[in-house]
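Q: How would the structure tokens look for this protein?
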Amino acid sequence: MSQEPLLRVEELTTHFFTEEGVVRAVDGISFTVNEGEIVGLVGESGAGKSVAASSLLRLVEGPGEIVDGEVTFRGETLFGVEERSDGELVQRDEMLSNAEMRERIRGREIAIIFQDPMESLNPVFTVGGQLREFIEINRDLGADAAKREAIDMLREVGIPEPENRYDDYPHQFSGGMRQRVLIAMALSCEPSLIIADEPTTALDVTVEGQILDLVDDLQDKYDTSFIWVTHDMGVIAEICDRVNVMYLGEIVEQADVEQLFYDTKHPYTCLLYTSLSGLPRAIRDVYKRQHRGHHARSDQSALRLSVPHSVSGRARGVRSGASGRARRLRAG
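A: Here is the predicted structure in token form.
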């Protein structure tokens, strides 16, 4: 692995500006991804994982806004801000433009696999046609060459008889097969990094295991780096090299996967782990009651875990306004 990370994320902050206040969905997270490794981003629903994943590619839609932090990929600034003399935060001049992100980064260098393939595949077009078009656009190939490449990629991800399935529609594929198509689409442009946003959540355990084995084999073959977003500690143990645990918009623990399981530091990580190990239902129910609505409005005063200083002492969720450096950006 090279000394310089493939992806570096520093103090990334994404807020949602609502009528009720500011939702601090991602609250100053920092992590790196090296060449050829799989880095996990794990936490319960509402922890901020998917918003963080979208923020890396600047795909956050209103009322959400990336308000602070820096994201660099191979030394280029995907997102970055600086403070002017008057205290206003503005985007850096060296930050890639929207056109550069669209033409050079998304799909070509960094691909993303979403949780629900039916949300990503158009039901009125054939699977092969969608894959071929994606390859045409991102690899500048002609229609015939792109079709051959699409069939090869369907074969690569384990679609049986890809020449025949090429003209089938998404509804003619099982959930696991549709997810394989999205993996083929992500790999087809040979990106350096793939963000997998809970791609196995909707699958049964057997199919999930097959998809994880497939990703493991393809990662070895192509040496592609992954950010694997999940709430499932079992998946983390199966596939990841390093792990970032998210809770209420923050990363509360970072570790190699073996260290995370054998030398757990944070109480929240322990609760995630015990949920995998079969924590008695009565205790789980108490925990859920205590922490229900932890990301709701601050005036609800949700109970919190007894956590280190990195989390305790700072309320999360919706605020009446932004504070500190995390103000709304002013166009540079």
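DSSP finds twelve helices and twelve strands in the chain.

Residues 115-190 form one domain.

Upvote if useful.
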